[in-house]
Amino acid sequence: MKLFAFGSNGSGQLGIGHTEDVSTPTPCLFETDIANATDTTHQEKTDLTDILDDDIVHIAAGGNHTLLLTKRGAVYVAGCNIDGRCGPRYQNQDEDGNISHFRRFILKDSITGSEISTFKNVSATWEGTIAVASIPQPQNQSPEKETQDKIYITGPSPKGTLTHNTTNPIQPGTSIPNFPPKDTKITSLSSSMAHTIAILSDGDVYGWGGSRKGQLGARNRDSKIVCQPTKVDVPFPVKGGVCGREFSVVWGPGGKLGVFADSGMKWGITGIPKVLSGFSDSDEDVGGGVRGCIPFASAGIGASWHGVYVHVAPASASASGSIAVNENDTQQDADSAPNPHPGSIIAWGRNDRGQLPPPTLPPTVHLAVGSEHVLALLENGQVAAFGWGEHGNCGPDTDPQGNVSGTYNIVPLPETVSAAGERVIGVGAGCATSFVLVS
Description:
It contains two helices and 33 strands. By secondary structure, the protein is mainly β. The protein has a domain of 177 residues: 7 Propeller (Methylamine Dehydrogenase, Chain H).
């Protein structure tokens, strides 16, 4: 597998070997020697490759760092590491503390001293990293539970973003104590700038970090900051969730959907389109949020800083029928729309920079939502980008304000991709960063 990146790169977060922004997909580089990841005194030049012998299954991005999770549980990191957000500091970081290529993320448990090198999920706040590992239980524990999940945190934790209210870096290898609850596993994890939600195997939701905007439910709003995992009240078992800048979205069986945010929040985040509102008036409240229902097969749900994106399960389709609703729209088109076309996107929220999908967007098979831009892998194998692209994260062509608004760009791929008979199999998006997976 190969990974290409473009966009904001001031801290090396694209992992392409330097710290300059680029507007065309550029090969990401990976360290070949795993020993370097545990050697904090290593100063020699490392061997790099642009081929990863594993499948990337998840990409998480902070403000200036990137995390890649592979099928085998390896995590690779690149970007700012002045404060340990990418793991232990290394002698071969640059003078600004940046890592400009991807290297393995390996921790030493601060309590047991055990080396932790495989993980089941990762997420990133603006400055921090959260990683979930399955840890073998001591032999005197129940034999029915072979492992227990443990959440490791590293980087600064202002306003409780990593369950500590401190701007001082948290020592890599630190974990959140007594979480998750006994006999539960973490099945989903999502973070935004300053808050995180974790979905448990029993359908419960816990969150921490900023809470004053209702992003962790009404019960936690008055706390303003939640510095330990705290239950979020949801009236249905939850299967997954995503975080926007100051809101959260969760979903469960039967298409149940909940959005946690202040009702007066700018950009209309709580204004779920009627096409997604198959519920009675008595069901509208969801612990301080609003409730909806997805009456069709969904390929996934994403959140930008100020928008929500529901991806209709793709299939062969001649038109996209994408529906975008922002605070200046009447919602008439969305409210009266027929069943959406396969591969289309239903989105609502901020659109002053073209963040919502244009109506001409073709059917998509994979969607990646960044902070203020979106990448879509189209049915024809091309990659489309739209939204705020000032750093080149939507490709080389933007309007004078740095936007791709009301339309979309087709991202130009290196000629070597087609020449080698390779194809795009996935896309990723972060904070003005874009990624294309090729195999």
